[in-house]
Amino acid sequence: MAYYAGVDLGATNVRAAVADGDGNVISAYDRGTPGGSAGIAVTEAVLECLREACADADIDPAEVRAAGIGSIGPLDLAEGVVTNPANLPDTIDRIPLTGPVGNLIHSDRVFLHNDTNAGVIGQRFYSDRNPDDMVYITISSGIGAGVTVDGNVLTGWDGNAGEVGHMVVDPQGRRTCGCGHDGHWEAYCSGNNIPEFARMLAEEDGGVETSLPLDDPDFSAKDVFENAGLDAFADHVIEQVAHWNTVGVTNVVQAYAPIVVYLGGAVALNNEELVLDPIRERIEDGLLNNVPDVQLTTLGDEIVLKGAVASALTEGTGDVSLAPN
Ligand SMILES: [Zn+2]
């Protein structure tokens, strides 16, 4: 039997899976992403997960024909590394990936993608319909997209296309993004930024009556969504988030003309009614292009891992016609 492997390298966790030639996952292993150490420690964690997943599948790593990797960025595709990852400690400046993984599996068929591109590759591979023109958008701690147009996954020259969370949605630029620039989508709507956006809205309104713990350092996006329908200010924040999400998704649809937009990431996965429904209801109003289906990803929080597996099976494309079986 032929085996394929996938790796999901995130800021919090590393996961690896071994799959058969149909993309069925046989075994998986995960662990925390090492923080505060050198990049090579992260490489070692990736290799550990792959070794353990192979051990669980009762195979030698050299039996793996190809591997896909979906990773936090930014990437240097030519070198096969992550460089100066934004969401890991400053001590980590370079994480070698394709070389060490290739050495482990004795194969040069190692495909590296940013996590959202891995996501769209997975969604494409595991979907029955419209695989050639779709967008995957993650709304989690950050916001990003993976895009396939006419069957081509858009990676960009350095692997970093699709950073749509850093598109300007608010021309007034009231919020400064983690990247240092003003008015970016992610600064209003990502899980990490919703609490600060809520505080800003409360200040703009000159103080509000709310049960939300705005002054608590642990105040989170979850608190906002949990108070939907119970707290008028929470509803106001959710409405504002819905507004900027609709602007962001509309811009992406106008640029790439997808037939389906799949949304994933914890904020979308945990709040389909509050996050997806408003986009579904409003997107038509801003579009010249065809109105796409807006759906929750069918792959849940395994989308990057499954996408990495799908990449290994399809020479990095997600195109089912290239799969071995
Ligand atoms: Zn930004």
Automatic annotation (TrEMBL):
GO terms for molecular function: N-acylmannosamine kinase activity; UDP-N-acetylglucosamine 2-epimerase activity. This is ROK family protein. InterPro entries: ATPase_NBD, ROK, ROK_cs. Pfam families: ROK. It comes from Haladaptatus pallidirubidus. Gene3D superfamilies: 3.30.420.40. Transmembrane segments: none annotated.
